[in-house]
Amino acid sequence: MLSSDNSNQERQSLHGNWSSRxxxxxxxxxxxxxxxxxxxxxxxxxxxxxGAFVLVYLLFVFLIGMPVMMSEILIGRRGRRNPVATMxxxxxxxxxxxxxxxxxxxxxxxxxxxxxxxxxxAGWTLTYIPKAISGQFTGADAALIADLFDDFVGNPTxxxxxxxxxxxxxxxxxxRGVKGxxxxxxxxxxxxxxxxxxxxxxxxxxxxxxxxxSFMFTPNFAALSWDGVLTAMGLACFTLxxxxxxxxxxxxxxxxxxxxxNAAVSVVVADTGIAVLSGLVIFxxxxxxxxxxxxxxxxxxxxxxxxxxxxxxxxxxxxxxxxLLAFAALTSALGxxxxxxxxxxxxxxxxxxxxxxxxxxxxWFFGLGTALSDNLLSEFKFFQGTIYxxxxxxxxxxxxxxxxxFITIFAAWVMSKNSSSEELDGHGFVYKIWQLLxxxxxxxxxxxxxxxxxxxx
Length: 457
Ligand code: TRP
What we know:
Elements: H1 21-32, H2 35-47, H3 51-79, H4 83-95, H5 101-133, H6 142-153, H7 156-175, H8 181-204, H9 209-217, H10 226-239, H11 246-251, H12 260-288, H13 299-310, H14 314-347, H15 352-371, H16 387-414, H17 417-423, H18 429-453
The protein binds tryptophan.
């Protein structure tokens, strides 16, 4: 039973609590670490000139991402329900308006739209597993690897099949509840990290390591437009899984005595570390092979197979790598789907299985737009972009930052200081910093960047 008592101490989630602080951190890290770190971060850094983009991204992660993540966790733990219900409940309790539920609803919709393209890219990853096993990268040069990729994405049947398969996997796991996944994440995330280090060794010895490092860390602000700044901000929200209620949903199961700050710091550091690490793997390889860092979404798929193809145990390592990447994508995808499914189970008469099937089908259908972006519909552009580019722009660069603004406004302005400080362990130094960032810095910075990028100021 949900308690309607005002004191959060007695309020319990319908679904129970995480078994430990580590379990929560693993779950949130599992959702945070995904294609955003290994696929999106390198290609976006490459497209936006490297160093300056990376620096701005890191600043946003710590100055905007961190306070927003803390706000989301504290809201979630205080409400202990699905994001829509939590926002409605706390809205009434703290500010007198249950219309805050629309903020929860916006997050649920954003997550579904993101999953629509996320699943297509995860499908690319899945397709690379049989390619790796059958040794297609062995000894291949850059041109051959590029052909392999272009032939694949140019084939609508292949791309749609992979997307369908990935959505089916999602449906399969989520319709049974996410139990067991936590255990798997505990083993697979460290394994992925380990493999990234193995790859790092190869990229360090590739001969272009220093060129890659200087591309990533020498800020050249002339190469960074306001649009690039907005992209860095969107990516910071995306990679931390914030701005869509997903972290709120996880916070609902967090035991009362766990420190939200410590948990948020661990997740942010782990997530950022993996993104930077994959940049350090990829850029040296880009330069060593005369590739173009601004290649776009194909970047990772055109660099990593190259190096696998030259390694001794390349077939083996490539296979493990794409399996792990697909798994990292799956743990994130489940996090993207769970809010919608949880909402549907709690608010309609459909059971978990039916709800999962309906939501998965809807997302699958939206995903067709992205799946056809590189082939049948590649000429179909609006606002100068493909369907994928537009869905990504609208979700990551508009919907996520806007939700983040409202989340900080709610946590730092609407909620009483009593409530927020109770969740954040009192009025100490950390609380003051959080308050400063969540009240002023984050919302103002997001709005200014946003208005700059769309040309209003
Ligand atoms: N953070 C994930 C990644 O970097 C993607 C993601 C964004 C996500 N929002 C989410 C995952 C919400 C789970 C829940 O790949």
